[in-house]
Automatic annotation (TrEMBL):
Pfam families: Gram_pos_anchor (PF00746)
Location of the region described as Disordered in the Swiss-Prot/TrEMBL record: 462-482, 519-648
Organism: Microlunatus parietis
Keywords: Cell wall, Membrane, Peptidoglycan-anchor, Secreted, Signal, Transmembrane, Transmembrane helix
Lineage: Bacteria, Bacillati, Actinomycetota, Actinomycetes, Propionibacteriales
UniProt feature, compositional bias: Acidic residues: 524-633
Name assigned to this protein: LPXTG-motif cell wall-anchored protein
Record-annotated Gram-positive cocci surface proteins LPxTG domain positions: 649-687
Length: 687
C-alpha cells in the first residue's frame, strides 16, 4: 500500500467538506483518540484538500500498549489490530464529494473484500478486543474469567452520491465471542475423574476369563487336565483417553455455539448466530449486509441460538468418549496365559505333562476390530501328537470364543453408547450440571457485560481529528465531538458494561464525512419566458412572497422572485426599497438612474425576455458603486431567453450570480436596506 503522511491539517470554519478515516477510536477513562500513533487520516476543503493516506505503522504498534483504564488492558496495538486492517484514507476536493474509509482497504480507499468463513479463515487478519478486565467490575469474575471478541477483516467507507445523499458501506468478515468459565471448567474436570468407573470392568477381566477356562478344560473328553492356572495380563487407564476426548472442542457445523470442556471455554460464532435468526445465504459466513445499528449480543438472539444447541452439543460427550475409549482399548495389549498338566487316560511314557497355552495381542484383535486375528499357542515338552490334537481344539474353538464374548461385552458397553447405557449412566449427571453452569454465563454476557453493534451509522457523526469543524462552524477545541451535518459509518462498535455510563467503548474502522451547503448571494437565473433583470431576479432558494410578484409582462417565475425588500409595486415605481414595478421591463425609456443604469442594450424589453444582447457587458454595467466588472460577469447571470440559452446553471461549486451582485449594488446605491442572499447546494459525486 502506498503510504504517506502529511502534517495534521486543521479545518477552517469556511471548509465546506471534510473526510476522516480512522481504524481505532473510543476508549474508557483513557481516550484512544488522544494517542498520536493512532491519528486518523483527515482532509478538508478548501483548507487542506486532496487525498490523505495515513495507514497505521505496524512496527510502531508493536510497542504501543493500549490501556483504556478501568482495568481494561488491550495489550499491544499490533495484537488488537489485525495485520490487514491498518488502512486509513480521506479525500476532499472542489468538484467532488468527500470520501473516507478505514480498515482493510485498497490503495484508492475502496474496501478490500475478504473471504467468508467457508472460503478461508481470517487467520492473521483477525483483530480482537479483550474485555476480561471488566469482569471484576461486573461482579462475575467467578462465573467468567475471560471475555474476548475476535473479528475478521474490518472496513468502513462513507461519501455522498450524485444527489447529495449519504452513501456508505462496511465489512465484517467474521466474528467470534470467546468466553472462559471457571464454573464450567470445574464441572468438566469431573468427567475425567469417571475414568476409574470405566476402567475397572476392563482391568477386572481376569475374574471373568478364569472360570471360563477352568470350566472348558474340565470338560475335555479323553484328556486329563490338572493344576490349571489362568493369568490375564491387562492394564488400561482410560483417564488419558477421556482427557484426550475432552481436549477437542465440541462443535457442530450447524450450530453457532462451540464448547471446549478442557478449558471451560465457550465460543459463539457471531455470523452463525445472525444466520440462525435471519435465515438465508446472505448472512452465512460473514456479518455483512445487516441492517444499520444491528445489536449482535442480543438476549433474544442468543437464547434462540442456545435453545437446544447446548443440549445437542453436550449429548456428543458420550459419543466422543466412546470413540476415545475404543481407540485406547483397541491398542491395549492383552496376554492370557493358561498353565496346567495334561495326561492321557492311559499313561504313555513321554506323552503329556506340563503345558503353557498363550494368547497374546491387542484387545482389538481379540474382539475382532483389528487384524490379524489371534489364537492360543501351546507349548510343552510332552505336548505332541495325540495330546496336542486334543488340547488345541478346546483352547481355540471352545475357550477362545467364550473369552471373546466376555471381553466384547465389556468392550461394547464402553465403546458404544447404545449398548448397556454405561457411558450415559456415567456422564449424564455431569452433562446436566454443565448445562446448568453454562446458562448463567451466556445470560451475563448478553444482558450485562457486552454490546456488539455492527454496521454502525451515526447522523450526525463524529470527527476525532483536532480542528475538525464543530458545531456552529467553529473549530473543535478537543478531539472527538459530534459534528452537525456530518455522518459516520463504523464497521463495529463494542461496549463494555453498556448502560448510561459505559465502562469503555471501542470502535473499529470508522469513516466520517461532512458536506456543507455553500452559502452565497442568489444567482439571477430565470427561465426562457420569464427572464428578469438583475434587480428582480432570485435563484431557486429565494422564493417570491406575496409582496414581490411581478406582472404578466415581466413575470419572474417562482424561482426568480425578489424578497420583501425588492417587491415590485403596482405602479412600477422604483422606490427606496429597490422594488421593480409591474412592467419591470427596463426599456429604452425606463433606464435606471446613474448609479444603477443599464444601457439600451441591457434593458429587458416589454415582454421581459433577456436575449443574448442582454448580457452584462461594459455598456450594461452599473457604475463603480454597483457594477459587476468584466471579469466577474458571467453570461449565466443574465439568464438567456429562448434564443440565447437554456437558463440552467452549470454544476459547479461556485454558482454565485454576478448579475445579482451588480443588481444588489444598484439597490444599495438606490437606498435599499436589504441584499437578497440564497443558498446554493453543491452536488457531490462519489470519488
Amino acid at each position: 500500500m502506498t503510504a504517506w503522511t502529511a502534517a495534521p491539517a486543521v479545518a477552517l470554519p469556511t471548509d465546506t467538506s471534510e473526510a476522516e478515516g480512522r481504524v481505532l477510536s473510543g476508549g474508557g477513562s483513557i481516550n484512544l483518540n488522544d494517542i498520536a500513533e493512532l491519528e486518523a487520516a483527515y482532509s478538508g476543503y478548501p483548507s487542506a484538500p486532496g487525498a490523505v493516506q495515513n495507514p497505521l505503522d505496524a512496527t510502531v504498534l508493536k510497542s504501543l500498549n493500549l490501556d483504556l483504564g478501568n482495568g481494561i488492558q488491550l495489550g499491544s496495538a499490533s495484537d488488537v489490530l489485525g495485520a490487514g486492517i491498518l488502512g486509513q484514507y480521506a479525500s476532499t476536493r472542489e468538484d467532488g464529494a468527500p470520501f473516507a474509509s478505514a480498515g482493510a482497504i485498497n490503495d484508492d480507499g475502496s474496501i478490500a473484500v475478504a473471504p467468508n468463513n467457508d472460503e478461508a479463515p481470517a487467520g492473521d487478519e483477525n483483530a480482537y478486543v479483550d474485555l476480561s478486565g471488566t469482569l471484576d467490575d461486573a461482579g462475575v469474575a467467578e462465573l467468567i474469567s475471560k471475555l474476548r471478541v475476535e473479528l475478521g477483516a474490518l472496513s468502513a467507507s462513507a461519501t455522498y452520491d450524485e444527489n447529495g445523499e449519504i452513501s456508505s458501506d462496511y465489512q465484517v468478515a467474521d466474528g467470534k465471542l470467546w468466553i472462559e468459565s471457571p464454573a464450567v471448567a470445574e464441572i468438566a474436570a469431573k468427567l475425567s475423574e469417571t475414568a476409574d468407573q470405566l476402567s475397572d470392568p476392563v482391568n477386572n477381566l481376569s475374574d471373568t476369563v478364569t472360570p471360563i477356562v477352568e470350566q472348558a478344560l474340565a470338560a475335555v473328553s479323553g484328556l486329563g487336565v490338572a493344576n490349571v492356572e489362568v493369568t490375564v495380563d491387562l492394564e488400561v487407564d482410560l483417564k488419558a483417553a477421556l482427557e484426550s476426548a475432552l481436549e477437542e472442542a465440541i462443535t457442530d457445523e450447524n450450530s453457532a455455539v462451540g464448547i471446549d470442556l478442557s478449558e471451560g471455554a465457550l465460543t459463539i460464532d457471531l455470523a452463525k448466530l445472525v444466520k440462525d435468526s435471519k435465515p438465508g445465504d446472505k448472512f452465512y459466513g460473514t456479518l455483512n449486509g445487516l441492517d444499520p445499528n444491528t445489536e449482535i449480543v442480543d438476549p433474544q438472539l442468543i437464547q434462540a441460538a442456545l435453545d437446544g444447541a447446548i443440549g445437542t452439543l453436550l449429548d456428543q460427550i458420550p459419543a466422543a468418549a466412546a470413540e476415545a475409549i475404543a481407540d485406547t482399548l483397541n491398542s491395549t495389549e492383552i496376554k492370557i496365559e493358561i498353565k496346567g498338566e495334561a495326561t492321557l487316560p492311559v499313561p504313555v511314557p513321554g506323552v503329556g505333562g506340563a503345558f503353557t497355552a498363550t494368547l497374546e495381542g491387542t484387545l482389538g484383535q481379540l474382539v475382532g476390530t483389528q487384524e490379524p486375528a489371534i489364537e492360543f499357542v501351546v507349548e510343552g515338552d510332552g505336548i505332541t501328537g495325540t495330546v496336542l490334537g486334543l488340547l488345541e481344539p478346546v483352547l481355540n474353538e471352545t475357550i477362545l470364543p467364550a473369552v471373546q464374548d466376555a471381553v466384547k461385552l465389556v468392550y461394547d458397553r464402553l465403546t458404544d453408547p447404545e449398548v448397556g447405557g454405561a457411558l450415559d449412566t456415567v456422564f449424564r449427571p455431569l452433562v446436566e450440571a454443565i448445562k446448568e453452569a453454562i446458562t448463567p454465563v451466556f445470560d451475563a454476557v448478553a444482558e450485562n457485560l457486552l454490546s456488539i453493534v455492527v454496521n454502525v451509522q451515526e447522523d450526525p457523526g463524529e470527527f476525532t481529528h483536532p480542528g475538525a469543524t464543530g458545531e456552529e462552524g467553529s473549530a473543535q477545541l478537543k478531539p472527538a465531538a459530534v459534528t452537525e451535518g456530518s455522518f459516520t459509518q463504523r464497521a463495529i462498535k463494542i461496549t463494555a458494561l453498556p448502560g448510561e455510563e459505559p465502562l469503555a467503548t471501542v470502535s473499529l474502522a470508522s469513516a466520517t464525512v461532512r458536506q456543507a451547503d455553500a452559502t452565497g448571494e442568489v444567482d439571477a437565473s430565470a427561465d426562457d419566458d420569464a427572464a428578469a433583470d438583475p434587480d428582480a431576479s432570485a435563484d431557486d432558494d429565494a422564493a417570491a412572497d406575496d409582496d414581490a410578484a411581478a406582472d404578466d409582462d415581466a413575470a419572474a417565475d417562482d424561482d426568480a422572485a425578489a424578497d420583501d425588500d425588492a417587491a415590485a409595486d403596482d405602479d412600477a415605481a422604483a422606490d427606496d426599497d429597490a422594488a421593480a414595478d409591474d412592467d419591470a421591463a427596463a426599456d429604452d425609456d425606463a433606464a435606471a438612474d446613474d448609479d444603477a443604469a443599464a444601457d439600451d442594450d441591457a434593458a429587458a424589453d416589454d415582454d421581459a425576455a433577456a436575449d443574448d444582447d442582454a448580457a452584462a457587458d461594459d455598456d450594461a454595467a452599473a457604475d463603480d458603486d454597483a457594477a459587476a466588472d468584466d471579469d466577474a460577469a458571467a453570461d449565466y447571470a443574465a439568464a438567456a431567453d429562448g434564443n440565447g440559452g437554456d437558463g440552467e446553471l452549470p454544476n459547479t461549486g461556485s454558482n454565485l450570480s454576478l448579475g445579482l451582485l451588480a443588481g444588489a449594488g444598484a439597490l444599495v446605491l438606490a437606498g435599499a436596506s436589504t441584499v437578497v442572499v440564497g443558498r446554493i447546494r453543491r452536488n457531490g459525486s462519489a470519488l
